C-alpha cells in the first residue's frame, strides 16, 4: 500500500530500481531507455516509472538530493514495495588527476561525513560497501562496451557547499574516485533492510580543476552510465539463472 512518500501499490515497482537524484532525469531515463512505461509515483513530484528493457521489468525513480532524502525513498521501496536491488545512477565531482569530466565512476565503497550509519551501528564505524555481484557485473558491462571506468571509494558529503575547503585535497590524497551526496546512506539502508545497492556516476565537474558540465548536459549526456547500469541488471539476472 501507499506510504507517506510513494503513492503506489505492491507490484507497481520491479524488483530492481534505477535511481537518479533528479525526478526529471528519472522521466528522461524512462522515456529514453524503457518500453511500455507507466508512471507509478508522483508524490512531491518525485516521479517513478516502471517499464521494460529488453523484456525485463525495471523501475526508475528519483531520490532527491542528500542522504536523508535517498534514505527515505530507498527504505520505503525495500520494505513496502518488495524492491531487492537499487542502482543509483547519478553525477559526482572528481578530485583525482586521473578522473575527468564525463568519466564513469563505480562506487565500490562510500565514506562520508554524515553520522547516519553510526546511528544505525551503535556509534561504531560501518563500512558502507556496494553489493559485490552488482559491482562485478557493472565492471564487466563497462569492459564489454569499452567504456573506461574508475572503481573505488567515493565520498558522500552532507554539504554541497563545504566550508572546509581543504577537504578536496584530503580526498584526493586518499584516492577518492568521486564526490557525491547519497551513496553511503543508500548502502547503509540496503544493509539494514537486506537489499542490494550500487552507485554508478558520471563525473559532472572536477572540484580542483574547475571543469564542469552545464545543467542541460547533466540531464542528457549520461548514456555510457545508463547502458552500463541496464546491462548490469541483465548480467545479474543471467548469473542467477
From TrEMBL:
Biological process, per Gene Ontology: purine nucleoside catabolic process
Entry GO CC: cytosol
Pfam families: PNP_UDP_1 (PF01048)
Catalysed reactions, semicolon-separated: a purine 2'-deoxy-D-ribonucleoside + phosphate = a purine nucleobase + 2-deoxy-alpha-D-ribose 1-phosphate; uridine + phosphate = alpha-D-ribose 1-phosphate + uracil; a purine D-ribonucleoside + phosphate = a purine nucleobase + alpha-D-ribose 1-phosphate
Alphabetized InterPro entries for the sequence: DeoD-type, Nucleoside_phosphorylase_CS, Nucleoside_phosphorylase_d, Nucleoside_phosphorylase_sf
Protein's UniProt keywords contain Glycosyltransferase: yes
Gene Ontology molecular functions: purine-nucleoside phosphorylase activity; uridine phosphorylase activity
Site description Important for catalytic activity, residues in chain: 218
Active site location: 205
Binding site residues for a purine D-ribonucleoside: 5, 180-182, 204-205
Protein family per UniProt: Belongs to the PNP/UDP phosphorylase family.
Function as written in the Swiss-Prot or TrEMBL entry: Catalyzes the reversible phosphorolytic breakdown of the N-glycosidic bond in the beta-(deoxy)ribonucleoside molecules, with the formation of the corresponding free purine bases and pentose-1-phosphate.
Assembly notes: Homohexamer; trimer of homodimers.
Protein name: Purine nucleoside phosphorylase DeoD-type
Top-level taxonomy: Bacteria, Pseudomonadati, Pseudomonadota, Gammaproteobacteria, Oceanospirillales
Gene of this entry: deoD
Amino acid at each position: 500500500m501507499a506510504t507517506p512518500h510513494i503513492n503506489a501499490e505492491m507490484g507497481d515497482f520491479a524488483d530492481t530500481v534505477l535511481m537518479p537524484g533528479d525526478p526529471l532525469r528519472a522521466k528522461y531515463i524512462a522515456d529514453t531507455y524503457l518500453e511500455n512505461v507507466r508512471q507509478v509515483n508522483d508524490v512531491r513530484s518525485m516521479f517513478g516509472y516502471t517499464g521494460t528493457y529488453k523484456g525485463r521489468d525495471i523501475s526508475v525513480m528519483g531520490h532527491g538530493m542528500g542522504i536523508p532524502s535517498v534514505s527515505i525513498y530507498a527504505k520505503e521501496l525495500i520494505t513496502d514495495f518488495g524492491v531487492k536491488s537499487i542502482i543509483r545512477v547519478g553525477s559526482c565531482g572528481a578530485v583525482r588527476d586521473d578522473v575527468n569530466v564525463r568519466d564513469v565512476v563505480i562506487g565500490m565503497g562510500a565514506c562520508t561525513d554524515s553520522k547516519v550509519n553510526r546511528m544505525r551501528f551503535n556509534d561504531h564505524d560501518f563500512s558502507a560497501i556496494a553489493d559485490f555481484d552488482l559491482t562485478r557485473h557493472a565492471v564487466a558491462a563497462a569492459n564489454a562496451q569499452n567504456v573506461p571506468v574508475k572503481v573505488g571509494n567515493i565520498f558522500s558529503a552532507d554539504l554541497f557547499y563545504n566550508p572546509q575547503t581543504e577537504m578536496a585535497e584530503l580526498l584526493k590524497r586518499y584516492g577518492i574516485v568521486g564526490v557525491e551526496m547519497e551513496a553511503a546512506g543508500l548502502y547503509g539502508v540496503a544493509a539494514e533492510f537486506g537489499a542490494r545497492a550500487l552507485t554508478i556516476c558520471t563525473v559532472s565537474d572536477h572540484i580542483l580543476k574547475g571543469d564542469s558540465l552545464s545543467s542541460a548536459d547533466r540531464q542528457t549526456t549520461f548514456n555510457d552510465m545508463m547502458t552500463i547500469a541496464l546491462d548490469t541488471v541483465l548480467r545479474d539476472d543471467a548469473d542467477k539463472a
